[in-house]
Amino acid sequence: MNAWNEIQERFGTGLVDYTDLEFAKNHGWHRQLHIFEVPFYYIEYGIAQLGAIGIWKNYVEKSRDKTLEDYINFMKLGYTQSIPEIYKTAGVHFDFSPQYVSSLMNFVESQWN
Question: Which residue of 43, 55, 58, 74 shows the fewest CB atoms closer than 10 Å?
């Protein structure tokens, strides 16, 4: 319960007023069936999103032609290789360190301007 509330505080929008609804706030995570049924579901989204951003970054900052070629080769692999190997083929890092993720987020932010 405490971990759920900390995550909500950190990443939530803060738009919901939970006054007199503490039970709902504290136990809302029980409604997230993916946690129980397919616990890696959300992690897969994160892995895919970071890979997609890495490809986008290569397209913008490096060679567009090379990035498209890498993308096509990566797609041809399908489920025949490990995720790190697929990322390598796509020309991106399979790296979830704070430094690497921060560099991707800085890139995304730079594209808003």
Answer: 43
- Within the chain, strands assigned E span none
How big is the chain, counted in residues? 113
Contact 104, 57 (CB under 8 A): yes
Question: Which of 9-13, 51-55, 72-76 has the lowest average pLDDT?
Answer: 9-13
Question: Quick check: 109 pLDDT over 90?
Answer: yes
Provide the residue ranges of all domains of the chain, joining segments of one domain with +.
2-31, 42-112
Whether 83 contacts 94, CB under 8 Å:
yes
Helical (H) or strand (E) element with 31? none
pTM, 2 dp: 0.75
Give the three-class secondary structure for 89: helix
Across the chain, which distance is largest between two alpha carbons, in Å?
57
CB under 8 Å to 108, separation ≥6 — which residues?
A: 53
